[in-house]
Write a structure and sequence with these properties.
Strand 1 and strand 2 form a beta hairpin. The chain is α+β, with helices and mostly antiparallel strands. The protein has an eight-stranded mixed β-sheet, sandwiched between helices. It binds ligand L4RZE5RM and zinc ion (ZN). The site of zinc ion (ZN) has 6 residues, from loops.
Length: 207
C-alpha cells in the first residue's frame, strides 16, 4: 500500500519551503534542526535524520506513526520523540519546527531557566495573544543526548505550564509548534525576533 498520499506530499512541500526560509535566515546550519507536520490519519511527515534542512527534497521527508516508528524504512530525526510528544499532548497542533538559531543557542549562557517576553507588539504573532500587554515565559532546558529523558523533562514541565508556546534547549536550539506549518513558521520567526531583542537588551544592561 502506498502511504504517501497527496496530503503527505502537500505537507512535505510546506516543510521544504519552510526549511528554505529558515535556512535563508541562518537558523539551521550544517544539517541541524528538524521539522514535522501531522497528517489527517494521525501519522506524521518528518525530516529524515541528517539531511540539510535548507536543501530538502521530497525524499528527505518521511512518514512515521504517532509513536515515532518509521513507516517507510527511512531513519527519522534523532529528535523524533520531541515531536511526537507534542502531537500527543496537543490535539490541535499540526506542525512542529526546531531551528538551531544563534540566539536560541546562546540564550542559556545569558539567562538561567527562562526567557521572559513582555510588552512586545510582536507577541501578537503568537496564537491566542491579542495585546502587547502580555507576559510569557519560554523555558530553557539543559541539553541532553538522551532524548527520551529530555522529552520526559519537557513533558513534566508542560504538564504544569499549560500555556507554553515554545521551549529552548541550552546550547542547542528551540522547539515551537502551531496549528499549521504556516502558523508554526510565524511563531518561529516572531520568537526568534523576540529572543534577539532580549539578548541585545541584556547586552545593553550589562555594566
Ligand atoms: C548536526 S545537528 C545535531 C543533531 C540535532 O540537534 C538536530 O537538530 C538534527 O538532527 P536530525 O537527526 O533531525 O537531522
Ligand atoms: Zn537539534
Amino acid at each position: 500500500m502506498n502511504l504517501k498520499t497527496d496530503e503527505f506530499f502537500s505537507k512535505a512541500d510546506d516543510l521544504i519551503a519552510a526549511g528554505r526560509f529558515i535556512d535563508s535566515k541562518g537558523w539551521v546550519p550544517a544539517t541541524s534542526g528538524n521539522f514535522s507536520a501531522r497528517l489527517a490519519d494521525g501519522n506524521i511527515a518528518i525530516t529524515v535524520s541528517g539531511r540539510h534542512k535548507g536543501q530538502l527534497q521530497r525524499d528527505d521527508i518521511m512518514l512515521i506513526d504517532p509513536n515515532g516508528q518509521s513507516l517507510d524504512g527511512q531513519k527519522p530525526s534523532a529528535e523524533t520523540l520531541l515531536h511526537t510528544s507534542l502531537y500527543r499532548r496537543y490535539p490541535d497542533v499540526q506542525a512542529v519546527l526546531h531551528p538551531h538559531s544563534i540566539n536560541a543557542t546562546l540564550a542559556a549562557r545569558l539567562f538561567e531557566a527562562e526567557i521572559v517576553l513582555e510588552d512586545y507588539e510582536l507577541l501578537k504573532a503568537l496564537a491566542g495573544i491579542d495585546t502587547h500587554e502580555t507576559r510569557i515565559s519560554i523555558p530553557i532546558f539543559a541539553n541532553d543526548q538522551d532524548i527520551p529523558r529530555l522529552a520526559a523533562r519537557v513533558d513534566q514541565f508542560l504538564d504544569q505550564h499549560k500555556d507554553t508556546h515554545a521551549y529552548i534547549i541550552a546550547g542547542h536550539g528551540f522547539y515551537t509548534w502551531g496549528g499549521s506549518v504556516a502558523e508554526t513558521l510565524r511563531h518561529l520567526e516572531a520568537l526568534e525576533f523576540l529572543f534577539d531583542c532580549e539578548i541585545r537588551l541584556h547586552g545593553v544592561k550589562q555594566p
